[in-house]
Amino acid sequence: MHPLLLDIGFLQIRYYGLMYALSVYFGLLILRKDFQRAQWNKNEDQIFNLVFWVFLGGLLGGRIYYVLFSLDYYLAPTTPLWEMFAIWHGGLAIHGGIIGGLLALMYICKHYELPLWRVCDYCCSVLMLGQTLGRFGNFMNGDAHGIPTDQPWGIVFPYGPASREFPGQPLHPVMLYELVLNFFAFLLLRYLLRLHRKKGLVSCAYLILYSIIRFCVTFFRADDLYFYGLRAPHIISVIGFIIGLSCILIFKLYQRDLKWNEEMQYLPLRKKNSKK
């Protein structure tokens, strides 16, 4: 494992950045197909804007969340101030990314007069694929690492935070655990999209699925953030699971949406107050 895919002096391509680029690329492809299938009067620039701003919001949210929970490190005299912005060193919290991405999505949907929860359903499936790819970037970068293990599949990381915290020790490859689980969750969310249930179901299913995944994987993580002695991912996962399940049951999101065809067939994708 090595964080660099290509290093030719002035040009460096990191696996971490490559996975983010691939996430955006596949996100654009999938959403374009989804919007075509939904028969929305789309504009390629607007689809790109949606993906770009949601990605940027998630990136900022993930970094801000991580820095806020790690202020002791980033405000230490020995830590340079610019380290707060060095995302290539790792340090993006997925829960902060979800919050930041959702805020950006709310703005874009309002700007283009899109149904928030229907678009959110599409984006959640794409997000899960992005998380799958992102975990491979973590694996090559040696961050988001696991605790020591004597199991035969334990991996010694030669680079990154994992090697600095546990030099020469085999660790649980938690990035790969989550990569596999995220991919199966992605396939399930894509299946749910095709069932034409009420809007919001896939978004809530994402909350439930990822909450379960992260809650379980967190037991093997060595670098989780803490809140008053409790692992922050455990707290957020429990809250996310309760919210997702409650919304599905209270609003009966599992029922078939009888207005799905009508909504999808005639909804335009356009800028607010645009001239016809």
Rounded to the nearest angstrom, the distance between the terminal CA atoms is: 54 Å
> How would a crystallographer describe the biggest sheet?
2 strands, antiparallel
Mean pLDDT: 89
DSSP strand count: 4
Uncertain regions spanning at least 5 consecutive residues: 265-272
The proportion of residues in beta strands is under 5%
Strand order of the main beta sheet, please? 1-2
Please identify the structural class as seen in this structure.
Answer: mainly alpha
Shape: globular
SSE topology string = EEHHHHHHHHEEHH
Q: Using only CA atoms, what is the Rg?
A: 20 Å
Helicity level: 55-70%
Q: Helix count, per DSSP?
A: 10
Write up what this structure looks like.
The chain has helices at residues 15-37, 44-68, 71-74, 94-112, 116-141, 160-165, 174-193, 201-218, 232-250, 260-266; strands at residues 4-8, 11-14, 226-227, 230-231. It has 276 residues and is mainly α. It has a two-stranded antiparallel sheet with strand order 1-2. The protein has a two-stranded antiparallel ribbon with strand order 3-4.
